[in-house]
Structures are given as C-alpha cells and as structure tokens.
Specification:
The chain has 13 helices and six strands. By secondary structure, it is an alpha/beta fold. β4 and β5 form a beta hairpin. α6 runs parallel beside α8 and α7 packs across α8. The N and C termini lie far apart (48 Å). 33% of the residues are buried.
C-alpha cells in the first residue's frame, strides 16, 4: 500500500520518527458528513476557520489524502462510483478495515502536517463519501465526533441535476439524485447510534438561524464563537433554500430563466 502513496512535500516539518511520536495529535477526528450539495462545504469552512483543521488542500475544504486517495480511489474505485446505486454494501465497506485502517492511522498525521496542521489541535475529515463509508471510519476512529448536515432531498436533487460533478459530468436525472441523497442519508442514520458523539443539523435551520445553530454546534465541539465567526455566517442566508422551486420554475419557463441568467451576469 505505501508504495503507491504520493504525499506532496509542501511545508513538511523536518521531523524524525521520535519527533512525530512526541506530537499529541488527537486520534478522534470530527467527521462532517452529508450528501453532496447539502451544505457540508460552508459548514466545514466555518469549522476550519475556527480551530478544527481539515487539511483543506482541495476545493470545498476537503483533504486530498482522504477524499481522493483513500475514499474515492482506493475504496470506491473512482469513475463516478460515488454516484451509483445501490451503494457499496456495509459488508464491503468494512472489508477495508484491516488493510486501510492501519495505513490511515500511519499516514494521516504526516499528510496533515504538510498542509499546516500543528500536530496537536482538533482535526477533521470532510467528504460526502463519508456517508457511504461511515461504518469503516467508525471502526478506525471509534470516538470520532460525527456532524451530519441534512437538507431537503428535493432541493439536493434539483441542485445536482444541472451541476457538473467529478466522475459523472452533468447528469440531468432528478429521481436518481433524490434516491442517492436518500440512500446517503439513511446510511448515516443507520450508524448514528454507534457514534460516540452524533450531532445533526438541518440545512434549512442553518440558513434561517445561522448564529443559533452554529453556537449549538460549537458547544458540542468546545469551540469559541467569535466576531470572525459571525462575519463568516453573513454568507449563510435563507436565499440558499428553495432550489427545488427554482428548478421547477426554470423547467416551466426555460426562456425566462435563460434571460434572467444573462441579465444577472
């Protein structure tokens, strides 16, 4: 396994094995889970900028090591398999515990140190694929704190029907995306009771009550709500809600939608 690992040497401290052992990095990450287009990115941005390190060397505050290398490539096999139904079975997911479990525990810290992690603070993993792979990650990190953000299935499906997604392209299939979002959600709920800490957020509540919902989350994670947090939350507004209604309107009046998009550029 290690011979195909590809750590990019960015800002890697000059640490020998003894120095690495001296670091007190917690082995219990924060796992941000939720279907694609359900608010995981903005939520993770807020957490990352308030003391929980997510690697964040990719778009959407994801870690290449976890999102692309481990989850997409080694487990799901790439090629858009994350978007296929039925989902990879729980048994198949768990079959990676003995091979990838030790590999992850051995390499995650070195990888995160490259991207600015101090080796001691709280850290996390954000990837929608974690919904599918949650049983495996709970075996590897049994005391992980799971933060699950849920959004209206119709809004998720509507937002994904016209959006380019890696490995899939643009898939204009509302029913498929709705069914996939439901499958992702149910996989998480199936293992919610197995989590040491499980905290659920509703996207719609987050958009209408961002300060209150974030303060509740910060209490769970022992984070401090600061003026910079409040500034970040200004981009979380009720206008984010209603993708399904906008999608329906666009389908009823395609030319009106095209003209509107042209004038709004």
């Amino acid at each position: 396994m290690s011979e195909i690992y590809f750590p990019a040497q960015h800002n890697l401290p000059n640490l020998d094995p003894h120095s690495l052992q001296s670091l007190s990095a917690p082995q219990n990450p924060v796992l941000v889970v939720g279907m694609h287009n359900s608010g995981t990115s903005i939520l993770t941005e807020i957490l990352h900028k308030n003391g929980i390190f997510f690697g964040a060397n990719m778009d959407h505050y994801e870690s290449y090591f976890f999102s692309n290398f481990i989850n997409d490539r080694l487990i799901l096999g790439g090629k858009g398999n994350w978007a296929k139904l039925p989902l990879m079975s729980e048994e198949e997911v768990l079959s990676y515990e003995k091979t990838l479990g030790p590999f992850i525990l051995k390499h995650w810290l070195v990888d995160y140190l490259q991207w600015g992690y101090d080796g001691r603070s709280s850290w996390g993993i954000k990837d929608p694929r974690l919904c599918v792979l949650l049983p495996l990650y709970l075996r590897i990190f049994p005391n992980a704190k799971v933060i699950h953000i849920r959004r209206s299935l119709e809004d998720i499906a509507a937002s994904l029907t016209s959006k380019y997604k890696a490995g899939v392209g643009v898939l204009n299939d509302f029913e498929h995306w709705k069914a996939l979002a439901e499958a992702y959600t149910q996989r998480v709920l199936r293992f919610a009771s197995d989590c040491d800490t499980y905290h659920e957020i509703t996207y719609e509540d987050f958009c209408t009550q961002p300060k209150e919902i974030t303060q509740q989350l910060f209490n769970v994670l022992s984070l401090f709500f600061t003026p910079s947090t409040e500034k970040l939350l200004k981009k979380v507004t009720p206008t984010r809600i209603g993708s399904y209604q906008r999608w329906q309107e666009a389908n009823k009046h395609p030319w009106r939608s095209r003209l509107k998009s042209l004038f709004n550029k």
